[in-house]
Hints:
The protein is an alpha/beta fold. The chain is built from ten helices and 17 strands. The longest helix is centred in the first third of the chain and has 27 residues.
Amino acid sequence: MENTPLSRHSLIITSVIAFIIVVCLWATTLFDSQTTIVFCTVGQGDGIYIRHHGENIMIDAGPDNSILSCLGKYMPFYDRTIHHAILTHPQADHYGGYGEVARRYHIANFYLPPIENSDPGFTSLKNTLTTSRTTIHLPRRNDRIQLSEDAITFLWPSTSYTQENIVFGAIRGDVLGITAHDPNDFSLVSELNIGTFHALFTGDIPSNLLDRIIRDSHQSITLFKVPHHGSKTGLTSSILKLANPTLSVISVGAKNIHGHPSQEVLDMYKALGKQYIRTDQKGNIVVRIDGKGKWTVDN
């Protein structure tokens, strides 16, 4: 009994010190000018984590819960908020991990194209997001996610393409609809510019649409997410020449049944002398960018 006051006093001091440490760590991230982009190893799928000035951003979440280990490794342990989560298109190899992410973290804003998917997994994800009071966004070309002085800008789909190729269940065009097209055609394509650094995130967009997007963008590409896991339908030699990326990343599962990345795409890179990295060979691919756009890749 005589030790009780001292124990309580020690506990209070320890708690205060721990609180101060967490606050200091949190404050430090707010003034950190470095941006980190992680192409997570999620098997045959896409999963990207971005940390920018204290905000957490995701682009896709892979086919299963593998994305959680990536978040656990690169996202600060004290931060439980995903400020912006993008689903490029509603196919399982891109949305599969989001259900558990939404249960373990608070997703403040969720962005997806306006197409429906009747799969139970996608229905469950929508229900989880609704229950979690997440704000849902259906972005179109030129819409932006403001990130302090930088921004993620959506380049696809356009409003006209959406209106022409999706049948909505209501008069308003801001609900999920159905389409006869491949869902890949509506992939949310986005860009992130930081100083001289320009990243292009392509989802599974097919080559005929990607060609149009890159021609309209008029920007040199520093970091290029190769569309559709290196499928031959996502890239042509002419597009690769036009994009002229400094570094490309292929998010792909080892020994996948689709044969991704295709030999045709790998041959294109070899013929043009362009550099690429594969998640099935390297694991998590980490790119760090300072406020002026100077960047490095972790070894």
